[in-house]
């Protein structure tokens, strides 16, 4: 990760819990409740904001 841009590392780091939740739901080890989609949207929104702000600078 030390050779990647900070925005790329941020996106990968922020997407890990989203992917982990998706896999857990698919495997039947977790249930989909209202807070998981909200958290996923917030994570994706933060990754988008970091990427857009970095691109404008």
Description:
Helix 1 runs antiparallel to helix 2 (35-56). Helix content is 75%, strand content 0%. The protein is built from two helices and no strands. It has helices spanning 6-26, 35-56. The model has no long low-confidence stretch (mean pLDDT 82). It is mainly α and 57 residues long.
Helix coverage percent of residues? over 70%
Report, as a whole number of angstroms, the end-to-end distance: 22 Å
Strand portion, in percent?
under 5%
Radius of gyration: 14 Å
Biggest pleated sheet: none
Please provide the ordered H/E string of secondary-structure elements. HH
Query: Total number of helical segments?
Result: 2
Beta strands, count: 0
Mean pLDDT: 82
Question: Could you list some keywords that capture this structure?
Answer:
mainly alpha; 75% helix; 2 helices; 57 residues
SSE layout and pairing:
Blueprint: H1 6-26, H2 35-56
Helix pairs in contact: 1-2
The gist of it:
The chain is mostly helical.
């Amino acid at each position: 990760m030390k050779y990647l841009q900070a925005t790329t590392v941020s996106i990968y780091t922020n997407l890990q819990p989203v992917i982990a939740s998706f896999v857990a739901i698919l495997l039947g080890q977790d249930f989909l409740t209202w807070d998981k989609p909200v958290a996923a949207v917030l994570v994706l929104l933060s990754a988008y904001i970091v990427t857009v702000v970095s691109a404008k600078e």
